[in-house]
């Protein structure tokens, strides 16, 4: 028989454990080892769900992550243009990496509260938070810098460019309209099929890229 968990117990004992684990997951660098017991956190969530604290826990989780993302957004706003793209890439990668741990830890809450009562999904909700609190606020600064970087070879690494473009497409597919040619380099089938009349233009673009690569010391 499970001991009764009062709302005071939840606030003083259970949520602080979850809060601290979420903090560590949100701020870890890729490849970091985190000294938290996944089993303990998982069991904490399970007990709170069984004792009807799902609504409070969901509300606390959303508030916690929203506050974190607002801080991330402010830090990005303060970034100089030459570091902006790289820092956005790190913020996006770090957050998506954290979700891979946070979502499974809250699987019981997702199953017995978010899916059944709210008809939603935790991962979708948390991705939406990043879209609203970070990406939407930065897209109009970010896009011109990405286009500029794309026309200046080797300003940023191809993997950074690919991560950001694919990430933005995942967050909001309609952002393709802002820079169709850029998105089409990393996302298959986002542009209409090529017309025969445009093939010469594509060939010319390809030759220009080849020339730029050779000028920058890349041999075939």
From TrEMBL:
Name of the protein in its database record: CDK2-associated and cullin domain-containing protein 1
Function: Cell cycle associated protein capable of promoting cell proliferation through the activation of CDK2 at the G1/S phase transition.
Record note on quaternary structure: Interacts with CDK2.
TM regions (residue ranges): none
PANTHER family registered for this protein in UniProt: CDK2-ASSOCIATED AND CULLIN DOMAIN-CONTAINING PROTEIN 1 (PTHR46636)
Signal peptide: none
An annotated GO BP: ubiquitin-dependent protein catabolic process
Keywords (A to Z) from UniProt: Cell cycle
Top-rank taxon, per record: Eukaryota
A matching Pfam family: Cullin
Example GO molecular function: protein kinase binding
InterPro entries assigned to the protein according to its UniProt record, in alphabetical order: CACUL1 (IPR042652), Cullin_N (IPR001373), Cullin_repeat-like_dom_sf (IPR016159)
Keyword Signal among UniProt keywords: no
The keyword DNA-binding belongs to this UniProt entry's keyword annotation: no
Domain Cullin N-terminal intervals: 15-171
UniProt family annotation: Belongs to the cullin family.
SUPFAM superfamilies: Cullin repeat-like
């Amino acid at each position: 028989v499970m001991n009764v968990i009062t709302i005071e117990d939840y606030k003083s004992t259970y949520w602080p454990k979850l809060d601290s684990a979420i903090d560590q997951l949100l701020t870890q660098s890729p490849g970091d080892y985190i000294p938290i017991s996944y089993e303990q956190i998982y069991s904490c969530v399970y007990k709170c769900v069984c004792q009807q604290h799902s609504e409070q826990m969901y509300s606390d989780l959303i508030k916690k992550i929203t506050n974190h993302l607002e801080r991330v957004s402010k830090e990005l706003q303060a970034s100089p243009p030459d570091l902006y793209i790289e820092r956005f890439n790190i913020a996006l990668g770090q957050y998506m990496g954290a979700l891979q741990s946070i979502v499974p830890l809250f699987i019981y809450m997702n199953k017995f509260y978010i899916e059944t009562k709210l008809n939603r999904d935790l991962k979708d909700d948390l991705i939406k938070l990043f879209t609203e609190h970070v990406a939407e606020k930065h897209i109009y600064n970010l896009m011109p810098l990405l286009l500029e970087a794309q026309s200046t070879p080797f300003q940023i690494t191809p993997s950074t460019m690919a991560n950001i473009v694919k990430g933005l497409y995942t967050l909001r597919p309609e952002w393709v309209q802002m820079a169709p040619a850029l998105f089409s380099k990393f996302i298959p089938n986002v542009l209409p099929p090529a017309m025969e009349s445009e093939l010469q233009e594509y060939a010319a673009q390809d030759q220009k890229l080849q020339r730029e690569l050779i000028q920058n010391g890349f041999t075939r």
